[in-house]
Write a structure and sequence with these properties.
mainly alpha; three-stranded mixed sheet; 3 strands
Length: 102
């Protein structure tokens, strides 16, 4: 009831959602965690391959590198060419009050 779900995210059925779920991802397993980019859903909604690449790289910084969330946000802002979707992702991450699923 107190978490925020990002747009175009996909959450497996029956899972407890203890923290905010960032936009554009698959969330699965118990405890709930990042399962990858929601590529099929985003393609169906008309996201371009270039945008998908930028989002994939952004989530690699967040989940696959050994950076804190703040460091990952700075790296996204510095190394990825801005687009509305990455701007929305960064805004979501900065405004998260409960923290995001890891």
């Amino acid at each position: 009831q107190f978490v925020t779900l990002g747009e175009h995210c996909f959450i497996g059925g029956g899972y407890r959602v203890p923290k905010d779920v960032p936009p554009y991802i698959l969330a699965m397993r118990e405890p709930l965690r990042f399962g990858g980019l929601n590529t099929i859903g985003l393609q169906r909604r008309g996201f371009s391959p270039e945008v998908l690449q930028k989002l994939k790289l952004a989530y690699r910084f967040i989940y696959r590198s050994n950076l804190t969330l703040e460091q990952a946000i700075k790296k996204i802002e510095k190394e990825i060419e801005p687009c509305p979707q990455t701007d929305h992702l960064v805004s979501f991450l900065k405004s998260s009050k409960r923290g995001i699923i890891r």
